[in-house]
Specification:
This protein is α/β, with parallel strands linked by helices and 340 residues long. It folds into 2 domains: 123 residues, 3-Layer(aba) Sandwich (Rossmann fold), CATH 3.40.50; 198 residues, Dihydrodipicolinate Reductase, domain 2 (2-Layer Sandwich). Helices cover 33% and strands 24% of the residues. The strands form 2 sheets. Strands 8-9-10-7-11-12-13-14 form an 8-stranded mixed sheet, with helices on one face. A 6-stranded parallel sheet has the order 3-2-1-4-5-6, with helices on both faces. Helix 4 packs parallel to helix 5 and helix 8 crosses helix 10. The longest helix is centred in the last third of the chain and has 18 residues. Keywords: NAD, Oxidoreductase. GO terms for molecular function: nucleotide binding; oxidoreductase activity. InterPro entries: Gfo/Idh/MocA-like_OxRdtase_N (IPR000683), Gfo/Idh/MocA_domain (IPR050984), GFO_IDH_MocA-like_dom (IPR055170), NAD(P)-bd_dom_sf (IPR036291). Belongs to the Gfo/Idh/MocA family.
Length: 340
Amino acid sequence: MKLPTPRTPDPASAPALRWGLLGAGWIASQLAISLRGTAQTVVAVGSRDLQRAQGFVDEHVPDARAHGSYADLVADPDVDAIHVASPHSEHLEHALLAIRAGKHVLVEKPLAPTADEAAQIVAAAREAGVFCMEAMWTRFLPHVDVLRQVLDAGLLGEVSTVLADHSIPLWPDGPERLASPDLAGGAMLDLGIYPLSFASLCLGGVASAAGVGSLTDRGVDRRVAFVVQGPSGAVASCATDMSVSSPTTASVNGTWARLELETQFYTPTTMRLVGADGVVLDTMEGDPVEKHRGLRHEATEVALRVAAGETESPIMPLDESVRILQVAGELLDSLRPALP
């Protein structure tokens, strides 16, 4: 048994879109870098600080324009699509700003800090008729396309369990946005969203979930271990912690075979198809140089859908993004009553 070939579109041959980056932080820089050599062009960058926007332009996209406000960015007539790269506590405000300006939007993960805010973004985009998608970049990587093909073809047999974890030591000495309850801080929305979204993909959605964990002294989640169940009854066991480093691996386990994803499973990594007897049947090697250059695949998806006149992606459906945040919210809510 062999792994299928990725069907991932070539970013160099995708239709051209003119991008505006809302935010001048690290993730915006990674997208800008990843788009080099593709048909996509960053034509404008917006920040609340014009000097910060200009510094970003000078370093990453010298031909782009710098805007000293987000309102000026979304009003730029040369911008087709906005990458909302601000902290997720601000996604609702910034996504709505872009949507109301008639721009297509790619909103960084998570789509919003709550399911209610995510639903507001979705409703606004649908009413405006613009494209909208959560930037869950893992969904668009070649190895995950292969995973999806394996699941669709039933090559693993009956999927019974999924395992995934993601922990990075970002607290207490990391960014304030992760420590602050006012900024929707905590491990789940920044790190745990990856294994939760992965579980949803592999299980065909989430029917129910339960978890345990603990909060920091400021009331945000430090660690969460959770189990989710899909519509078929299969389950996923996941964990996230913003105070330690974990293997950050994943596996999808069926009655005939399993898929093993090596460390940083949500990035371009090595994936193995392993038989029920433990014999490795096939391997898809990861590209260590690729890493966040893989962000160009999500931009390619936006460009292809917009060119086709579509307003959503079947690979990362908006309703699924909302459902994932509903589950995340339920898990987080369950932690608080148990603690003083």
